[in-house]
Amino acid sequence: MRYKYVGNKAPERDFCRQMMRASKVYRKEDILAMEAQGINRSHGHDGQPYSIWLYKGGVSCHHKWERRTYVSTLKNASIGSPKTSQISTNKARKFGYRPTNEKEVSMKPKDMPYDGHHPEWIAKNT
Description:
Elements: E1 2-7, H1 14-22, E2 25-26, H2 28-36, H3 52-55, E3 63-72, E4 84-87, H4 89-94, H5 119-125
Antiparallel strand pairs: 1-2, 1-3, 3-4
């Protein structure tokens, strides 16, 4: 399984512009490593940890992670290999895989409750 950063094609934030321009697919562990490295750290609330995995470009962001599932006839084939193809989540389930994530992963923060604000911000402001 891989994830592509998708959404508004004319992003306003530097992080979102860079992610859209890169047009790459990422492993979940690569996205979590970006978080650990502090990429886009400025969007954390009052120094709180910030999750790129869940909140992408921050409050009111117009992007989300789109899951892409691939299957191959070779054990170690890369995504670009002619022996590898993208399949639907339903087809992956038929193969016995159970692809699940937190619901926020596939949601744009602008579509989340409170536009994707951090829970501590919500508690202070409601």
